[in-house]
Amino acid sequence: MSEVIGRATYANGERQLFTDPDEFIKTIREELPYRSTSGFAFEVINANAATRKAIDNLVYNEYGEKNPHDLAYYQEKDRSIPVYCQSAAYAREHDELPEFRVSNRANVACKVAIEKVINGNYRDNCLDSKSAFAQVAEMFGTERMKYVLAVTVRQKDWDGRISHENKAWAKTVPVADNKDAFGSDRNCYFVVDQAHTGLVDLLVTYARKQFAAEKDTPAKKPSVLGKLQSTPSAPKPPAAKGKDMER
What we know:
By secondary structure, the chain is mainly alpha-helical. It has two domains: 6-79, no CATH class; 88-217, no CATH class. Helix content is 54%, strand content 6%. The protein has eleven helices and five strands, in the order E-E-H-H-E-H-H-H-H-E-E-H-H-H-H-H. The protein has a three-stranded antiparallel beta sheet with strand order 2-1-3, with helices on one face. It has a two-stranded antiparallel ribbon with strand order 4-5. Helix 4 (71-79) crosses helix 7 and helix 7 crosses helix 8.
């Protein structure tokens, strides 16, 4: 299922939805100079870091400026978004819809990234799971990667190409039951479905071992110097009053 990454509107009421990043960028490049007469406006919805940077480049350029942010800036913003593990209904009840939407967009972007790294790291009938895992973790962090992979495996519970071990693992990851008003599962929008399921299973097998290793790694003990620096010094006794101060 192709996800909507952006939309455009015009003064005459015309609306466009985009699922292809190149087409979205091309439209913005062509329409932005004429926005004052056409009423052109756009909204970025689920675009990945590279697409957002390309769009910002166009906007900055339109104002005669250069985008001061590199790709790492956009990737860091993706990594810093907390994973929202509650449903949209819960978010609405608790006034947290903005957090839900931002996290959901990041989930979709992570899903697309997983598909790309799987396809990009498969050669000679072999998947370089280590490299694929590292690339996605660098872009989105391991918590979001875990959530997206767990949702993917849960949605493919019927698929015999997913191992029993991976299916059992996915059920241990808390996932929100995220139904919309029509009973459809919103989580389906970030299911990894544009890569071969057998390769997805290989990545999940490698990833869950890495997740387990992270969990089992003991927290690094602070050094003696760190303890000394973090320990508040004992308060000094009050200075003795002089004779002239007692008068």
